[in-house]
Amino acid sequence: MSETVFTYAAPALKYGPGALDELGHDVAGLGATRALVVTDPGVLATGHPERAAQSLRAAGVEAVVHDSARVEPTDASLLAAVERARAEGTVDAVVAVGGGSSIDTAKAVSLMLTNPGELMDYVNRPVGGGQAPSRPVLPVVAVPTTTGTGSESTTICVLDVLQAQVKTGISHARLRPVLAVVDPELTLSQPAGVTAAAGMDILCHALESWTARPYSMFAAKQAHERVPYCGANPIADMWSERSLRLLAGSFRRAVANGSDREARGQMALAATFAGLGFGNAGVHVPHADAYPVAGRVHDIGSDFRPAGYDVDEAMVPHGMAVALTAPAAFALTFDADPQRHLAAAGWLDPTGEVTADEPSARLPAVLTALMRDIGMPSGLAEVGYGEADLDGLVEGALQQQRLLATAPLEVTGEHLRGVFAASLHLW
Amino acid sequence: MSETVFTYAAPALKYGPGALDELGHDVAGLGATRALVVTDPGVLATGHPERAAQSLRAAGVEAVVHDSARVEPTDASLLAAVERARAEGTVDAVVAVGGGSSIDTAKAVSLMLTNPGELMDYVNRPVGGGQAPSRPVLPVVAVPTTTGTGSESTTICVLDVLQAQVKTGISHARLRPVLAVVDPELTLSQPAGVTAAAGMDILCHALESWTARPYSMFAAKQAHERVPYCGANPIADMWSERSLRLLAGSFRRAVANGSDREARGQMALAATFAGLGFGNAGVHVPHADAYPVAGRVHDIGSDFRPAGYDVDEAMVPHGMAVALTAPAAFALTFDADPQRHLAAAGWLDPTGEVTADEPSARLPAVLTALMRDIGMPSGLAEVGYGEADLDGLVEGALQQQRLLATAPLEVTGEHLRGVFAASLHLW
């Protein structure tokens, strides 16, 4: 029997320039008296976390700032953040100020300060125990400072498990932040390269949830079997469409001129909207592919350094890793629902500027044209991958069965091999 | 200084045929062990509340069913419901099964079982004390059985205060249900007349929030001054548009054939979407007008009996009362934003079937054509009002300053008089 039910949940939202200054009032309104502000060292240096702490204190909420988040969190970095939080004594709310890493770290802290056992007990199977939190967690308030992650809207904390050499997650409805404070002024200092990569993450969140297998095409679930990600559905569709339309009008502008406040504002909205979409529908092939693309960059001895990122080793940022196989992935998924793929191409390229020889090539062509304009690499080859690495990439993507199950077709290793091969040179 | 910030909040949602059967699992998931099911005698007779109670019991949640809600709740009916609930001893969740009256009654019960003082302390000023609840309320889970109210999405409990002879409300963010379970199968037995009137309520929720004064055109507020209704904003706009598009494809069909499951499903979605829109943006002139239109029907000695409602006295259902002045109200608001009014007309009449002499008459013409098709009265005159009643209607609408402040223009008594006069005979 086919599924007849879908679910939807979202954090409350406060959006607009100046929203950060009301943080204290909003956290006090949750009944909190002592809050932990979780951030990373890079964001700490911008002064935003201290501004958050000041707003908390002005509202009578004691505030402690920890720069305990690490870019691309690992089990070790999360445990260290939890240990540092435990040493602070009682807190009754966790405020994340930063990108996805800070928000995900705050989720892990909120979980482990309230629930028994070890972090690995809660990590998705088969890597971890896949246990659900038995007790309520501390409320997490998310203040995103980059436009991309969408973590402020979702139930997942992504982490690298070092010993297993695998990226996986902790996912449970209780991990969803209760409030997202989206102040686009915080993103004004984001470098163009970060805006471009993180923006491709937004775009793929929206495109993947829009083209995901519809909820009604899964087998009917029992109540206890439901997960937050239920496939494309009328509500996620709406968020995805609106996000793509916002991106069409603002993405190139925000990359070209980071001081364009209107474009920054629209990108911040687009990021949150896409998060509300994929946080309920799910993502599929490009995100599954992104795990090995980002994860194997050291194994292949790449020396790729992304513009805009202050890194001292090879790195493919998450949004870039997602983007690099997106054109080929949406060529693969085209037949599952041509109309949706063409509609998305139309939202992203409303004047029909980008042409393609056949309908299935239109959305890939629109994506490729955008990626050229915003300075994405020209393909997997540019970040260091070659023909010899295809087997490893396929193997890594196949491990992401939770994501592949959301694709609108049964994805095989052959499919993925084709996608990775076509992504070596996009232009 | 102009406002730069808007807010958004919503209940979690479970939608689809069969959703009601998962109620127990979902309420247990809130940590509840004993729930009060609030309904009204009419809905009780359908068996839905008992089905809800069975689902609760099967999930280990003790359930008590009270048919303590009254159509168009009053302070007296709410107090009686609270008294009956108090006599049950401890409950830790309130489940509403029914229309807006049941959901609003559940909100009042949830508030008064947890907070000190009297009901009138919490009623909006100037009728009541306008106090905010000082303590968390019991979680309310709403199971709407009619497609209209949107109360499952909103923070307000509407009531008639008998002594003051005025309809007002209790409004606070804490009153918003935590979960809406929208099972369109529950609406299959809704009579055509109820589908028509309640459907006009949906339509006006969406149209009024879409045409509301934009949030950025209010004066800047401090954090503690914010209210759940913040004017038109990008998120409410999205819900409103989608609701209107759904209504365009389903409203006439659902009235004509109540067994059309697809149309019922779309109407149920449209109702929830419109609730998510107006629950954050607000409503304005048609809803302000509806208070005296529904409220003064006894004073004028009307003998109007609406089709589909089992009533033994004159009554203008809420949705009908809202609809009757909507065409004239949207002619009044046209100049504030012609493009929005024309866009809405286009969503409701995508083939451009309804013509009008001038742009400002297009949306009113689309509404009037719809109202004729679904059997709405031909104007205020048909429900009993005449020229002599205009002063009283204007006076009543002017009392709804909270709603009128959301209109996209400064609404005067003269404006309202023009709207009521033009609404006496719509065709």
From TrEMBL, chains A, B:
Residues 13-184 form the Alcohol dehydrogenase iron-type/glycerol dehydrogenase GldA domain. It holds the Pfam family ADH_Fe_C. GO terms for molecular function: alcohol dehydrogenase (NAD+) activity; hydroxyacid-oxoacid transhydrogenase activity; metal ion binding. SUPFAM superfamilies: Dehydroquinate synthase-like (SSF56796). Belongs to the iron-containing alcohol dehydrogenase family. Hydroxyacid-oxoacid transhydrogenase subfamily. It comes from Janibacter melonis. The keyword Acyltransferase does not apply. Its EC number is 1.1.99.24. InterPro entries: ADH_Fe/GldA, ADH_Fe_C, Alcohol_dehydrogenase_Fe, HOT. It catalyses: 4-hydroxybutanoate + 2-oxoglutarate = (R)-2-hydroxyglutarate + succinate semialdehyde; (S)-3-hydroxybutanoate + 2-oxoglutarate = (R)-2-hydroxyglutarate + acetoacetate. This is hydroxyacid-oxoacid transhydrogenase. It is an enzyme of class 1 (oxidoreductase). Keywords: Oxidoreductase, Transit peptide. Residues 195-298, 316-422 form the Fe-containing alcohol dehydrogenase-like C-terminal domain.
